[in-house]
Design a protein that fits this description.
Number of helices: 4
Strand content: 25-35%
CATH superfamily: Dihydrofolate Reductase, subunit A
Number of domains: 1
Number of strands: 10
CATH architecture: 3-Layer(aba) Sandwich
Distance between the termini: 14 Å
Radius of gyration: 15 Å
Length: 160
């Protein structure tokens, strides 16, 4: 089951200047739990936003740059190529950024979205999730606390 995993603000904000605009430690833990042991598919800028490759995951980086050869990643030039490499993984994850999410929406059966319950200034956005194509099957709300500046909700969608 090909899955998108993302965190987005109330207006689908993903981030600004190639970084998140919030800090939610529990969301990082959830991301790690869900993606560990799987292929993670991302764009070059998302890969370069990590200090180093994430442990126990196979990094597939989509880029137009034919000469791009980062350490710790497999470079591909299309979503189809990435999914071909990940075909034996029962749940590869598309992890961003904005353009990769837009491309990925045509391929995925599941979306794991953390909805950050606030509006943010951003330059990158998550695509709309049309209710005629997607069904919200699970929603778990979390209130802000000393470690989480904003309320947030884990939402799981399945393609109709």
């Amino acid at each position: 089951m090909i899955t998108i995993i993302a965190a987005a603000g109330l207006n689908n904000e993903l981030g600004k200047d190639n970084d998140l605009v919030w800090h939610l430690p529990n969301d990082f833990k959830r991301f790690k739990k869900l993606t560990t042991g799987h292929h993670i598919i991302m764009g070059r800028k998302t890969f370069e936003s990590f200090p180093k490759p994430l442990p126990n995951r196979i990094h597939l980086v989509i880029t137009r740059n034919k000469n791009y050869q980062p350490e710790g990643a497999i470079v591909v030039h299309s979503m189809e190529d990435a999914l071909e490499i990940a075909k034996n993984d029962e749940q590869p994850f598309i992890i961003g950024g904005g353009e990769i999410y837009k491309i990925g929406m045509d391929f995925v059966e599941k979306i794991e979205l953390t909805r950050v319950n606030n509006a943010f200034e951003a330059d990158t956005f998550f695509p709309e999730i049309p209710s005629d194509k997607w069904e919200l099957i699970s929603e778990v709300h979390h209130c802000q606390d000393e470690k989480h500046q904003f309320d947030y909700t884990y939402q799981t969608f399945l393609r109709r």
